[in-house]
Amino acid sequence: NKKEKRMKTSNSERILLPLYFVMVGVAVCLNFFSGAKPDMANLVVNISMFIIIGAVILWANTQCFMPVNKMIKSMKYAVETMEIDFNKSGAYLWEQYKDETNFFHNKTLNRKFNEYRVERKRLNMLSAYGSTCDLADYINEDYFDAVIKKGILSIIPGVMTGLGILGTFIGLSIGLQNFNTGSAAEITNSIAPLMDGIKIAFHTSIYGMVFSLIFNFVYKKNLEDAYNAVEYFLNAYTINLINPEGKLLYKIEEKENSCSIFHNRKQNVSPLCRRWKRFWILLVTVWRKRLPMQ
Question: The pTM is what?
Answer without folding.
Answer: 0.72
